[in-house]
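Appendix B. One record, verbatim.
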Amino acid sequence: MEAWIKALFFPGFFFLLITFLMVFYLERKVLASVHLRIGPFYVGKWGILQTTADVFKLFQKEFVIQRRANKLLYSLIPFVAFVMVSILLTFIPFSKNLYVVSTSFDLLIFLAIITSMPPIFFYAGWASKSKYSFIGGLRVVNQMISGEIPLWLSALSAAIFYGTLNHVSMVERSSFWSFIFLIPAFFIFMTAALIVTDRPPFDIPEAEQEVVYGFMTEFGGFNYAILSVAKLIEVFALFSLATVLFLGGFKGPFLPGVVWFLLKVAALYLFAFILRASTPRIRMDQLLGFCWKVLTPLALLNLVFVILLKMFLF
């Protein structure tokens, strides 16, 4: 019963809902600050209710399915994507005893679920029976597969360094030296995470100037909201995993572990917001060349480096 309570309240559904409302608001404010704009201002104090108003607006919109679409897949895929990425958070330890599930293969299961996401987003575009959505689905598969390989390799280097696949054990074995030696893996992981989650400057599948709005072109109202939330949960899950693997997770002085964990995740979000505000979108050919010619070889070299460290130094 305790696992169900955690899954529903904290760190479950209601916690995610409040977190994403805050993330939306802070992202708009940070972008506005970098661009010397005001950002949300009128709805609620300091515009703090603007995101809530946007959510209600989406839920009130008419649910439209075009005639050519595969109605069953079109209706189910947003919920499948939402459930799949929500499972990721069950393996994240927000503090030493605050997690839903802990197994001997946490990292392996987490990465396996991440790897299963490209077909889901591809079918979201295919089920719409729109050429723009279909092209967006192909682009998202191209991008996610290219980013997942360095993501796996950098996460594997952390697992080899700690000698375990359990997330709680990784945090407990982390130290200042683990942070130093895993810095290259951390930067590779963060870059790959931004690629996998389509965060700017890698938001190529949803490039509205090029392919209308990618695989989500035909989605609107509630279905669009669910798909968008699924993408946001994926970002939060990968940033949380980066915190576990490289930043010491819930470790920290004075404050409770969950506070340290959320502060570290917030710092990663701030980095992603500033990156979005200050960099232009790159082209698909540039991204694929960067992934296969630069990021993946670097991840392989880093993996060899960590294996040698483990063999001869630790």
